[in-house]
């Protein structure tokens, strides 16, 4: 079976403070809060989704804000750096903006591309790269106009405890193409134009520890439910142990852990985030699956109120 993913569907991470999380990803980075729901396994915790104007696959970062969670350690078996792509010629805008909002930035290069690297309020490692490819975002917020806005994921840097095995999986199972090796990394490309560039460390890394400021899993795209079924069979045929298909309301999901320790998910592009809210109202109301609706009042009482707000530095 020959399967190829278009690239990253979403990335999910742990943080501590829900309002700080909203202020950073909506306020600083200008992403849209496209869905405000709960962790289905722990309804006392938000599950927040940020992306472009509709939460397109390849743009979505999601968070579980656990107020009392331990601080994680970034290391092997994780997504080490989440890469965002911005329009060509806008890195100067972003460097000025991040500096003005007191977000320290480090400049670096990798595979002849320039990156701005920084961390969010919990220490999650992020970077910006400018590229021509990828559809422009239509979303603007605060001090980020649409023509400077983050398009979505440029890709990710995977920190593997067994990089040869991880690379083999990306090529032979996920259908990415190995396109180069430079310094400490090997680079792979998926078929899409967002979330398509994946760098993997060459030297094995010691395991990190999950907690606030670390990525829980990376999800890859399946174009529809039929292909998703094929992916599950394909993963199992290649010696991995995928979960049953799980309904996550806005996509279906399967999970498996690859040999380098990283938790992989494969998620369907449909049905998307407008299935239960009008596109113009995405992220404004706490959305619950039907089985939690009878407990809405209790659930809402246990959640700290949050709001999307323009930062003082943008007023």
From TrEMBL:
Pfam families: Glyoxalase (PF00903). Keywords: Dioxygenase, Oxidoreductase. The keyword RNA-binding does not apply. It comes from Paenibacillus mendelii. InterPro entries: Extradiol_RC_dioxygenase (IPR052537), Glyas_Bleomycin-R_OHBP_Dase (IPR029068), Glyas_Fos-R_dOase_dom (IPR004360), VOC_core (IPR037523). This is Ring-cleaving dioxygenase. Residues 7-131, 152-269 form the VOC domain. PROSITE patterns: VOC. Gene3D superfamilies: 2,3-Dihydroxybiphenyl 1,2-Dioxygenase, domain 1. SUPFAM superfamilies: Glyoxalase/Bleomycin resistance protein/Dihydroxybiphenyl dioxygenase. GO terms for molecular function: dioxygenase activity. It comes from the Bacteria. The keyword Plastid does not apply.
């Amino acid at each position: 079976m020959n399967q190829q993913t278009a690239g990253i569907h979403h990335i999910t991470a742990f943080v501590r403070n829900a309002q700080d999380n909203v202020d950073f990803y909506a306020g600083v980075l200008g992403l849209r809060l496209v869905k405000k729901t709960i962790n289905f396994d722990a309804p006392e915790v938000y599950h927040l989704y940020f992306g472009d104007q509709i939460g397109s696959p390849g743009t979505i970062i999601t968070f579980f804000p656990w107020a009392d969670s331990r601080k994680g350690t970034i290391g092997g078996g994780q997504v080490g750096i989440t890469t965002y792509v911005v329009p060509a010629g806008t890195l100067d805008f972003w460097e000025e903006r991040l500096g003005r909002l007191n977000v320290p930035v480090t400049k670096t290069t990798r595979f002849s591309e320039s990156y701005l690297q920084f961390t969010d309020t919990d220490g999650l490692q992020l970077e910006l790269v400018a590229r021509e490819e990828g559809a422009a975002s239509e979303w603007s917020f605060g001090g980020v106009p649409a023509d400077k806005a983050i398009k979505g994921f440029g890709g990710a840097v995977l920190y593997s405890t067994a990089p040869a095995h991880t690379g083999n999986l990306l090529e032979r199972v996920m259908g990415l193409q190995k396109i180069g090796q430079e310094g400490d990394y090997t680079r792979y490309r998926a078929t899409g134009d967002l979330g398509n560039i994946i760098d993997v460390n060459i030297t094995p890394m010691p395991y990190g520890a999950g907690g606030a400021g670390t990525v829980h899993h990376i999800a890859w795209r399946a174009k529809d439910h039929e292909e998703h079924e094929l992916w599950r069979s394909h993963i199992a045929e290649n010696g991995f142990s995928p979960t049953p298909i799980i309904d996550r309301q806005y996509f279906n999901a399967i999970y498996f852990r690859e040999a380098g320790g990283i938790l992989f998910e494969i998620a369907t592009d449909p049905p998307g985030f407008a299935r239960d809210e009008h596109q113009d109202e995405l992220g404004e109301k706490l959305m619950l699956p039907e089985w939690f609706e009878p407990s809405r009042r209790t659930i809402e009482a246990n959640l700290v109120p949050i709001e999307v707000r323009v930062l003082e530095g943008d007023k």
